[in-house]
Amino acid sequence: MAYVDPSEFATKLVDSGEQKVYMSTKDTVIRAYMAGAILALAAVFAITVATKTGSPLIGAILFPIGFIMLYLMKFDLLTGVFTLVPLAWIDKRPGVTFGQMMRNWGLVALGNFLGAFTVAVMMAYIFTMGFNTDGGAIAAKVATIGESRTVGYAAHGTDGWITVFIRGMLCNWMVSMGVVGAMISTSVSGKWLAMWMPVMLFFFMGFEHSIVNMFLFPFSLIMGGDFTVADYLLWNELPVALGNLVGGLVFVGLPIYYTHAKTSAARKLKVKA
């Protein structure tokens, strides 16, 4: 594992954010679509493992496989561009305007949703044999998750909304550490290890990831979950996405940028002879 010092990869984070703004619409959407689809498959895989083994920890240990695959292929999640693109805007890179940043976020969110929704429909179809059976224990588990993370939060009103927002913050704190981790080593094994650790933590702790939820909640609704699209958007997707934005930027992107890319001059001390 060839370690890269933070002072070296800090500039790469800003460069990466700039590159994503200049990426064509076609490439942005395709890469986002594949990222959403792969992460959705990883989520249903982890839930399947946890359900069949009775061990949520094993599911959490294996979930990062999807995250690692999509980042090694340079596909993009909304949670990642939430952290990277604002750094290029703050750094005043040419052409990186607020409008261009919002364009990137919108296209990535669209691609992520389409990819995750595609997998949700396919998994619902195969679990139910073409919607002819009830889907079994795994489908029931996902439906329960959908209900508890929408109407479950709604039952607590404002406190529930704030709770899911904070869970979104904590999630992208860890996920963005995985994004940064991919740059902290020049070897594939080093990147793999650096990404695996924080992503496993977020999944096991039940933090909220806006793209994982783009799979979980449509799948749950298809399987008959007892909540509405409005419940999902108001009590989950909106606060989670906002929490993901704040968590990734405040706890990862900005600290690295201001202390490693914009390091202040060292203090000068008077040394007594």
CATH class: Mainly Alpha
Radius of gyration: 20 Å
List the total number of helices. Answer: 12
- Look at the structure and name the CATH superfamily: Glycerol uptake facilitator protein
Index terms:
single chain, mainly alpha, Glycerol uptake facilitator protein, 12 helices
Describe the structure.
- It is built from twelve helices and no strands.
- 50% of the residues are buried.
- It is 77% helix and 0% strand.
- It has one domain: Glycerol uptake facilitator protein (Up-down Bundle).
- With 273 residues, the protein is an all-alpha fold.
- The termini are far apart.
- The mean pLDDT is 94.
In short:
The protein contains 12 helices and no strands.
How would the blueprint of this fold be written?
Elements: H1 6-22, H2 25-53, H3 56-62, H4 64-72, H5 78-90, H6 98-127, H7 136-148, H8 151-154, H9 157-181, H10 188-205, H11 210-222, H12 229-261
